[in-house]
Structures are given as structure tokens and as C-alpha cells.
């Protein structure tokens, strides 16, 4: 499908912690960590290896996105991200009384965990609506916040295409914890409860060896009984399991339906291939043949977030971290159609800023989703997918022309960043382009939309939904140690979020209190802990 891919590159950087592990049972866990330095990731010089925090968990290095001068780099391009794993994982740390590792916090996944009041698309000719608005930045009176929101069309339970699902369950020794295999069983049972008569589910497990526990069936009782009988023990042979899961899915392939593998694991497994490219080729081939891959992360201590995110990205699926029965219900019951049914694939966003109105900008989050400008129109470059009802939010912090920015003035006149006077007449602060493909298509479609320069005149702070999205963005960036947030504190973030009525938003407010308490008691540590 593609010559180059951000997903392929992303997976290369997690090979150190995943591709050559000898096993994941508790007795051998420390020995495996010591052996990681000899993995094939060392041959990938252009990618960084995942960073293990003091607990042994692995996260991909994730530097905060830089500031850009419009005169130097007027165009910002990125792939959409509908994963929510980072938010649930951050919540797990905070509920345990710890601040998360900075690399565990992906701000775009924090923002996109929540739903906002974006309108539905007018018709399905375009699978999603596009919303833009601007507000005064709460932490910097010299800048504005530009929000771009996408909302996919909803799909009712009755209209969802038939699904051919394979549960690939890690039953190795490392899964023998209350927050791992027992929670996996409860989570996947929710999917069984939401099956339609046309749907099929098969179950494959892997530990010392891989095997088919349940041939594809529509009988929810059989599915739940098979899940209930699973037990953990032994070392891991994840590669055999992945291959067997794909074989099982292919044997029951539904043309025009949903064909997906849901892998449930702590991510600490041996994928059974001799180098990371073999894994990439396997997942890419099956994806291009119509079998996608969703990863569900569980547990703590040896959790491999880097591998879970990268496998889902490469497999055109999504990554969720399940830290509770409530989260399982949210992902696998309430949002099941979004999790399973893709309405647009390879979705890319490109924003071109007009130097007559905007001098500097930065994109909050999406660091590992950045694309080169030329990749936007290249249909061979892979990007993110959007499921039914999914929402995507991106927030830029921008410096209006003439306002004080982050970048210093330059000494030599010839190097001075100047706007062209002719651009001022068009009344557009920016121009937004979106590219996407329909689920069965190979050629992208284009949506274009100008953003009026008059929006920069606003002095109003964020209100309502925009205020809450801004609060979540600030929360994520503060956990990451963003130095451009000024002196905004967790109490300020709570005030910005405002009074909330829904469970998940109320929980967010509570998490800011836990982070504030953790900040007050945290001592400096290594390994990227705030």
C-alpha cells in the first residue's frame, strides 16, 4: 500500500523491547530486560529505542513539539490519531498516587478521549464534519488557540456490517495478575454480549505455544465459556499467536464486513520473528488484504506501551488501555462501532498559515504523527483511520502578527522574518486541507476550508466545550513538563474545565487534583518521571 510510512518507522523504534525477548514469565523478566540491548533495533539508526522507566515499562521517546515561524515553515501536516490508550494509562498512574512518565503522556490522546459538541456531517458523501474556532490562550495573553474538530458520521447497531473477529489473548505467566487476564476475560465478554447473529468470534491464545481455543462462532454463550476457562502460565510465543490469529481470521473472512484481530496483552512478548521488518510485513500484508489489528493493553510493571501503540498504528486499528471494567465497557460496548467500523482511512490534516496574520505557531500534541509536507498528497503514505462516530481534535497555539512570540528577533536584516503585504488582502489566517480515503478506496479525496482572519480579533477566553478541550490540553502538556504553559497550575486547569456533569469529565477534574497532590510530594527521579 505504501512506500514509506510513519507507522512502519514507529514500529521500528519499539523492536528493542519486543522483537527478541525470550519470554515474559515472571521468573525470566529481569533476564529478558538485560538481553534487550542486543536486539535488532540497534540497526535502525534513524529511530530511537523505547525508554524503560524505573518500573520496567517501555515508552517511545516523545519530545514536545517545537515552535515554528510561519515565514520559515508555513505548513503543518499530521496524521489523525483516535487512540485513547495514553489517557487511560495516565489515569492508572494517578490513581496509584504516581505522576506518569513524561513519555507516557500523548496530549492528543488525552484530548481525543472525550467527545465534544461537533455537528454531524450533513451527508455521508463526506464521512466527517469539520469545525474550527479560536479563543484567547488562558496561559499566554499574546497568543490564540485555534481548534480544528472532526466528527465522523454515526452508525447504528442495526446497520453495522457483519464482523469477523479473532480474540488473540496472551495467557503467559506475566498475565497472572488481577488487572491482566481476569480483566481481559471481563472486557472481551462485553464484545460477546454485543454480537449480532451475522457476527463471528474466534479465540486464539499464546504462551509457550499458540492454539485455537474456539473456532469462529456466533454463540455468545460459547464465547464467554471459552474465555472463562483461560488461565495464565508459561513463557510467551507471541509471533506464533499472531500468525495463527491471522490464519483464523482469513479462514472466516467476510467480504464487505469487519475483519479484525483484537490482541489483549501487556505487550511484553516475543513476536517470534527474526527481525522487526518481518513483523511489519506480516501486519502490512494482512492489513492490505482487509484484516486490521486493534491492541488492548492491560496491567503494569512490564507494560510495553510503545509496542502496543505501534502495532495498532501499523495494523490500521486503534490502541486502548484497559485499566478497569468501566473503561472496558466504554471501549468495547458503548463505543464498539467506533472501535470496529472504519468510515475513512489514511486521514491527514494540513494547515497552511498566512504570514500576514500569524507569525508563529505550535501544534499541541501529535508529535509522533507528524508528516512531511509532501506526504500529504502522496496516497502511498499511510496515516490514521476514523471509525463511525469518532471525533478528532487538534489545537494550535498561534501568535498573531505583531504580537510577542516565542522566537527571538534575528540580527541580520536579510534573515528577518517578514510577511508579504499582498497576503493581507485575502482575509484568511489559515487554510485547512484534509485528505482521506473511503474504506475500500485507494485514491484520496480532498476537503478544503479557509479560516477567517477576523477570528484572531477575539479577546474572549475559551468557553464551554472549547474550555474543556483546552483544559485537557493544558493538563497533558503540564504532565509533560511543557515550559510554554507559563505559571498555569492544576487549580487553574480545574477552573478552566468548569463544572461538569458527565462521569468521564468529572473524573478528569478529579485527576487534576491527584496530579496536584503528586506534584507536591514527588521527588526528582530518573527515567522521565515528572
TrEMBL record:
Q: Which residues form the VWFA domain?
A: 164-340
Region Disordered, residue ranges: 35-59
Q: Which residues form a coiled coil?
A: none
Q: Enumerate composition-biased segments (Polar residues).
A: 35-47
One short Pfam name that applies is YfbK_C
Q: Which InterPro entries match?
A: CLCR, Uncharacterised_YfbK_N, VWF_A, vWFA_dom_sf, YfbK_C
- PROSITE patterns of this UniProt entry? PROKAR_LIPOPROTEIN (PS51257), VWFA (PS50234)
- Note the superkingdom of the native organism: Bacteria
Name the chain's protein.
VWA domain-containing protein
From the broadest rank down, the organism's phylogenetic lineage runs: Bacteria, Pseudomonadati, Pseudomonadota, Alphaproteobacteria, Sphingomonadales
